[in-house]
# Entry
Amino acid sequence: MILYPLFSVAAQELLYRSFYFHRFGPLFGEQRWLGVILNGLLFGFAHIVMESTFAILATAAGGLLLATRYAATRSYWAVFLEHTIWGWLVFTIGLGRFFFTGVSNTI
# Structure
């Protein structure tokens, strides 16, 4: 729980919100909502490695929520904190098995 924000959330928010909106946001012009939707879908798709339909759909929905927040605030720290809290909730209520496969024995 302590390392999750540092090793997972920080990188994901840097890439999927800060970098994405800085680099690709201007392409959407006045239709920012398209950028938000695409961001959420890409975030969900990135979780395909979890091999769980639930994980993909849930992270796409979470990605939409976080992308909406970032588009409104342009604050890395706002989405970092929100992503951390949602992640802690997911793991606390027992849904972590869909989002974390554990340490692999292979190199």
